[in-house]
């Protein structure tokens, strides 16, 4: 459950590209229960991310390592993976500020420290235009 909570946190920060990998599937002895659990987790994963998000399965450990075939398939999938464009970042602009300068006259600040100030921000705009 901590994984799904982490996915919710990532959604609040622009949600970078995510692919799920299910491990420890060798703990299921009953094939029917394994199939049902995979389906349940896949649909929960789709609910948290987007419908059709890739969830990869690693079948089990042999002598403490995953099989070469599973790792090969995972590496091949990662190398050719194309992610669906995520609309959150393009719909929510944000500014990354490198530095800022206060251009308010010193005399005005000395008279009233809570006066309206003129501040210039330098940095980058990401997402859509403001």
Report what the structure shows.
- The protein has helices at 2-11, 31-48, 68-80, 87-91, 106-111, and strands at 20-22, 55-57, 61-62, 65-66, 94-102, 119-126.
- It is an alpha+beta fold and 130 residues long.
- Strands 1-2 form a two-stranded parallel sheet.
- A hairpin with a 2-residue loop joins strand 3 (61-62) and strand 4 (65-66).
- The chain is elongated, with a radius of gyration of 24 Å.
- The model has no long low-confidence stretch (mean pLDDT 82).
Judging from the principal axes of the Cα atoms, what is the shape? elongated
The proportion of residues forming helix, as a percent range, comes to 40-55%
Secondary structure tally, helices = 5
The average pLDDT is 82
Which terms would index this structure?
elongated
Summarize the structure.
With 130 residues, the protein is an alpha+beta fold. 40% of the residues lie in helices and 21% in strands.
Annotate the secondary structure layout.
Layout: H1 2-11, E1 20-22, H2 31-48, E2 55-57, E3 61-62, E4 65-66, H3 68-80, H4 87-91, E5 94-102, H5 106-111, E6 119-126
Parallel strand pairs: 1-2
Antiparallel strand pairs: 3-4, 5-6
């Amino acid at each position: 459950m901590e994984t799904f909570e982490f996915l919710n946190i990532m959604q609040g920060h622009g949600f970078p590209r995510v692919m799920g990998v299910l491990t420890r599937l060798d703990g299921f002895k009953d094939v029917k229960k394994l199939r049902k659990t995979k389906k349940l987790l896949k649909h929960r994963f789709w609910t948290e991310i987007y419908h059709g998000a890739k969830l990869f399965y690693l079948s089990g450990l042999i002598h403490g390592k995953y099989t070469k075939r599973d790792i090969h398939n995972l590496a091949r999938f990662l190398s050719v993976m194309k992610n669906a464009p995520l609309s959150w970042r393009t719909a929510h602009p944000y500014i990354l500020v490198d530095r800022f300068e206060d251009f308010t006259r010193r005399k005005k600040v000395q008279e009233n420290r809570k006066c309206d100030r003129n501040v210039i921000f330098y940095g980058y705009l990401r997402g859509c235009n403001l």
